[in-house]
Amino acid sequence: MDKRLLPLLASSAFIAVPAVAQDVLPVPDWSGIYIGVIGGYGFGDLDVEGEGFIFIPPAIPYDLSIDAEGAFLGGQFGYLHQFGNFVVGIVGDGSVADIEGFDSVNIYDEDDFTVGASAGINWFGTLRGTAGVSFGRVMVFGTGGLAVGETEMEVGYDLSNIITTSRLPDSFDPTTSETNTSVGFALGGGVAGMLTPNLMADLSALFIDLGSESFSVVDEDDIGVGQGEVDFSTLLVRFGLSYKFP
Length: 246
What we know:
elongated; 1 helix; eight-stranded antiparallel β-barrel; 8 strands; mainly beta; Porin
């Protein structure tokens, strides 16, 4: 072989290898409609601020911090559009959840007046905008928008230590139980990968704040009463697997 041909052959091979790789692993187009499933785990610090009194005022203030956690499972539907390396879109999702917890505190003469609260999130959904940067088959993104969910709480005052109620683990009476549909915001970010031209996976962290709900507790014998509010927020670690339509 003529040695003068070696540089030409080498340069031809250098050009051909990326061309073959491009055919085997084409640069993905993130644009399109997608639908998929999501799931994960939520960690919430639900703050309770209230006050209660026995017989007559003054009221005794108290604070509870409920470590709520649990799993969720749902679906998502969205659209992405790519401009060069930048990707923007909109997504809506909804999930059923079992994120709840319990806390209690003694606020008067050791065990004579105990406040207990159980609170959680039964379902939630979001409608969010997304914006990200594509690095070929991987995209890093941020997201934010509207959140809505069903919050549930039960607050009780234990005055006798002998009466039991439905959800609170100890003897709390009187109690109040409320379920509300709350609206707030969602904010987070994550990373997505294009597994195939039509299959996407994403891993993200999403903070949801559903605001606060107020409550009041009144004993039928007017022995103990109280009022306050519960703040509902949770951090979601979520995984999604979606099909992108051609």
